[in-house]
């Protein structure tokens, strides 16, 4: 009897299916324009410098002129769509990288989700720039790759997603933000993280920083590769190293408990990273996502960190190689080599694929239902079978149970169950040997983020 039941379950279990085909998503990705991206990157570089402390008032040079232009461009493409554009300003006091109090302005374009839904997804790029001296607010700092590339990607994605949402409304809100103050200490992103975390359930954040070129300094070329940095364990370990002085927030404490219950590879950032890799590789054919289990490049940072440190799912997209002759450099020729972050070193076709990757990852989730709640493995009795339990969500047309070996990076098996199911029994699948999660599905097979199932003994 046990054997026949075991086969009954495994005959339904299958490898997790790819994201379903979606003609609207495909046509949205098809409208991403390398020419428009190139024109916007050149325009941003033409403001001379976008240093956070550069002129806020000069009509053509400095960060003020740049942000007025970004806002006007976004307003132009928001016309007739649900996209809402806002310049959000806060005053940052003098600090290690700010000589005096400075206005930080984030240009935020919000594409609202279903009425009353608290879910929000975030796409970031930073429009401020710097040269060799982080305090130099006057000298040229074209910042074409770092980070006009990410800013142009945000603008392009916002405009195209706005049209897609007109055709098919989103379940979750997407916030597209061009933020300032990254080079002076992630100041704009930190403010945005505070604002969004107060009002929404932030489900996932992507920062696009240095996404302009598939070329390395030694002739390497990887035009279909993206580095995706995703590690949610990092802030928990840092808290631990800081010792008892740092009391974790309730959210980080809950994640510590999840990590201690075998979920160290399954924190929200890891699930978001897995979702992005799968969605991108399905919807941007030929594109490969290198999923790196680190919060960022070694000893470096970006605008996802203020979100990550709050225990939110937050990742970084970057090009496959970085060329340090074209990053944080004064524009000059040295030993016959052109130094500086100039538009000519950016490949707009590559930025177009990055933009498509963001849209594939974010729209597929924004159209999906919310994830299930209180997912757990029923561990009240010893058993070689595994029972998963969860609390359902509105709008779900079913649920998908996922499992993989503890040493596997990606989900290996899936079992779909109906909308009324609140538990699933996997016979002959031991909770001691496998890692489990549950997703909510809509009637098109679009899946929510996976939620790790910790064992629950009571
Ligand atoms: Zn940057």
UniProtKB/TrEMBL annotation:
It holds the Pfam family Peptidase_M28. Residues 106-216 form the Peptidase M28 domain. SUPFAM superfamilies: Zn-dependent exopeptidases. One of its GO terms (molecular function) is metalloexopeptidase activity. It comes from the Bacteria. GO terms for biological process: proteolysis. PANTHER family: METALLOPEPTIDASE M28 FAMILY MEMBER (PTHR12147), PEPTIDASE M28 DOMAIN-CONTAINING PROTEIN (PTHR12147:SF26). This is M20/M25/M40 family metallo-hydrolase. It comes from Inhella gelatinilytica.
């Amino acid at each position: 009897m046990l054997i026949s039941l075991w086969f009954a379950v495994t005959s339904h279990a299958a490898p997790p299916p790819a994201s379903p085909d979606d003609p609207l998503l495909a046509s949205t990705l098809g409208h991403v324009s390398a020419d428009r991206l190139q024109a916007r990157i050149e325009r941003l570089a033409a403001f001379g410098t976008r240093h956070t402390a550069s002129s806020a008032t000069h009509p053509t040079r400095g960060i003020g002129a740049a942000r007025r232009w970004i806002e006007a461009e976004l307003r132009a493409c928001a016309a007739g769509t649900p996209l809402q554009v806002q310049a959000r300003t806060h005053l940052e006091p003098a600090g290690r990288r700010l000589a005096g109090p400075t206005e930080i302005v984030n240009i935020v374009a919000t594409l609202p989700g279903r009425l009353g839904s608290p879910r929000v997804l975030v796409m970031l790029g930073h429009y401020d720039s710097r040269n060799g001296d982080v305090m130099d607010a006057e000298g040229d700092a074209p910042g074409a790759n770092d980070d006009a590339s990410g800013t142009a990607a945000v603008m392009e994605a916002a405009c195209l997603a706005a049209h897609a949402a007109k055709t098919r409304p989103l379940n979750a809100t997407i916030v597209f933000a061009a933020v300032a103050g990254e080079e002076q200490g992630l100041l704009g992103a930190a403010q945005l993280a505070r604002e969004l975390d107060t009002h929404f359930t932030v489900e996932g954040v992507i920062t696009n920083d240095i996404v302009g070129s598939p070329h390395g300094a030694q002739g390497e070329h990887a035009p279909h590769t993206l580095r995706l940095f995703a590690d949610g364990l990092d802030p928990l370990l840092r808290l631990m190293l800081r010792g008892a002085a740092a009391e974790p927030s309730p959210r980080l404490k809950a994640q510590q408990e999840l990590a201690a219950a075998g979920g160290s590879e399954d924190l929200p950032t890891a699930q978001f990273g897995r979702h992005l890799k799968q969605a991108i590789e399905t919807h941007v054919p030929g594109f490969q996502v290198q999923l790196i289990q680190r919060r960022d490049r070694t000893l470096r940072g970006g605008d996802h960190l203020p979100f990550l440190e709050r225990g939110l799912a937050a990742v970084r997209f970057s090009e496959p190689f970085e060329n340090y002759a074209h990053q944080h450099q004064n524009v000059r020729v040295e030993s016959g080599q052109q130094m500086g972050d100039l538009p000519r070193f950016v490949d707009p076709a590559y930025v177009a694929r990055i933009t498509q990757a963001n849209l594939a990852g974010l729209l597929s989730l924004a159209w999906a239902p919310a994830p299930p709640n209180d997912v757990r493995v029923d561990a009240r009795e010893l058993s070689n079978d595994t029972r998963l339990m969860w609390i359902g969500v509105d709008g779900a047309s079913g649920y998908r149970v996922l499992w993989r070996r503890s040493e596997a990076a990606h989900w290996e098996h899936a079992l779909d169950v109906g909308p009324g199911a609140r538990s699933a029994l996997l016979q002959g699948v031991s909770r001691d040997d496998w890692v489990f999660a549950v997703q909510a599905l809509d009637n098109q097979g679009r899946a929510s983020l996976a939620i790790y199932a910790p064992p629950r003994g009571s």
